[in-house]
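Lab meeting minutes (informal)
Scribe: AK
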Amino acid sequence: MLSILGMGYYLPKTEISNDFLHKEVGLERGPDWVDSRLGIYKRYTVLSLDYIVKTKNQLPTLAMLHARSNGETPVTMGAKAARQALKQAGIKPEQVGWVIANNDTPFETIPSTAILIAKALGIGSGPHCDINCACSSFARHIKALSDMKEEHLPEFVLCVQTSAYTVRTDYSPKSMDGYIWGDGAAAEVLSTRHSGRLKVEPLVFETKPSGADDIVIDSAGHFIQDGASVREFSIRKTCEMFEQIAQVKGLYAEQVYTVAHQANHVMQNSIIGHLHLPADRHLRNVQDQGNIAAAGCPSVIAQNLNRLHKGDQIVYAVLGSGLAWGGGYMEVT
């Protein structure tokens, strides 16, 4: 059985408020639109506020250079989240046998983000690699490990999800994406040989290649998506995954905590309504940190881990570009 021994997360130091986006950046969609469509009130960025105001981030390649000069990149964020996870797990970097990372917005084409994070942490040789499935990468990482024979896995595996979407966000006046995206990272230490805070059982992972053009980031361009289509797909597929996992495990809504992809607070309200989920048992943070891609779901769990008790059950379901989606079951031990 796969266990999570430690979790961590990291958000950059610079906060972007809605007031800043409306009054200083000049985004035209006002508070009423944000309240009714998103329910996101702040997010964090590797960029400086002055840079966003002056440039509206029209050239993402320059934004990468600016973020580097600020000392915050997907790699530095991933390393900071990983240090938290290692500390909580009570293990040292040199004990990690494999680093798996996701990074939708790499500043480097090569080497892999996993290699760079391993170097930053002082982790030694291993089959370190990136497994990228955009916002569903947390589920993909867990499923990849679960599908492997236990004897082929090292004693400890470190998984990291990190991205800096604000570097790929257009902040021109008509932008909707400026309200949505934040930067951040999450990390998990996993093992099949040691028990930890959470037992994990991944149950779903699928893709829909015909939807490949629905959510796209060009190699040097801005994030773009077919918003209406993605919103409908996200709600429908998340509901299907929650129902599928509940059926397989024999669960009822009032028994479990649920965690979805942290894309949109209002969209999650729709999921809660469709499935009649107890709102107080649906864990989320998108309202306070924006959509931080694959790091969203695991960061929610990391932030709530101390409030959970032995025997508590969690159903998670995430999705993203690909289109790809995945989910599973966790139990607090």
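Next up, CB showed the second protein from the same session:
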Amino acid sequence: MLRDNAMMWLHEYHVDGLRFDSTVNIRRSRQGDLPDGWQLMQWINKDKRPENLTIAEDLEDNEWITKKLEDGGAGFGSQWDSGFYNVIRNAVVPMNDESRSMASIQAALNKRYNGDAFQRVIYSESHDEVTEHFGIKLGRMPEKIWQGNADSWASRKRSTLAAAIVLTAPGVPMLFQGQEFLEGGTWTDSPKTNPDAMLDWSKATKYSGILQLYRDLIKFRRNKEKNTRGLMGQNIRVFHTNEQAKVIAYHRSMEGGRGDDVIIVANFSAQSFDSYTIGFPSSGTWKLRFNSDWKGYCEDFTGIGYDTTAHEGEYDGFSCQGNVGLGPYSLIILSQ
């Protein structure tokens, strides 16, 4: 019956895919493993169409969840990576910059299941992380950063930095409803017990700049302007980490070359940099495609950032180097 219900949605209603909630409780009980539960998941994944995506919310970092059926795995296309969320939360929520770890961010960026970056769903907000647990209101990311001041400069800067990491990292990016227009407070699915359960759509106008920031990130993630193809691929090389300055830089690519090579630089500190040196894979002009510090997103952002010219000279393991501008708590995307 459970399998038939899944097939009805996939085959008769033609949904794109299914997310399985709490798969750990399908495959295991307090008494131990449940072979029937494991077989049920395999059965559904075997009978779905190849184009259907099934996602497991397992949250136990188990590679067997997304391992292929022929290898004995459950056969899911992807699974939630809560570890990625935890790293990003710890990198933007604390007040003091000293606690932010570039090494932890590097490990989160490089992580994959079974050698496949797209076997993990990555996010900075989800229904589990922004709801209420045992009477404690967890709050959305802007609320976590500064309780009661979700629209503050710090909350806007660091929550959008977290989202920019999600949308420039290899994996399947996920956004939570309202995140794109700075929805704050704590979410539940019951407006009777929590008025914050309902989205305040007026914020899409009030914070239209933040909404545009998310639109731009999605545009470049999907290579809509044909100059950020690398953001769609598997490849990532974190080539620069500066624990003192709290700066990290990484190279994304599919095959490499103009329009494919993408350089991302993120500043996790309140300090801005008018000229910060990093390595580049090739010489010439590198265009600033995206800058989360752009004043068009918020008038009180600094707007630091510019196109740059990389020249010959080894740096960060590359044959070329150049200077970039970085605003506080900001991420930039450059490509040729």
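CB comment: The first helix runs from residue 2 to 12.
No objections, moving on.
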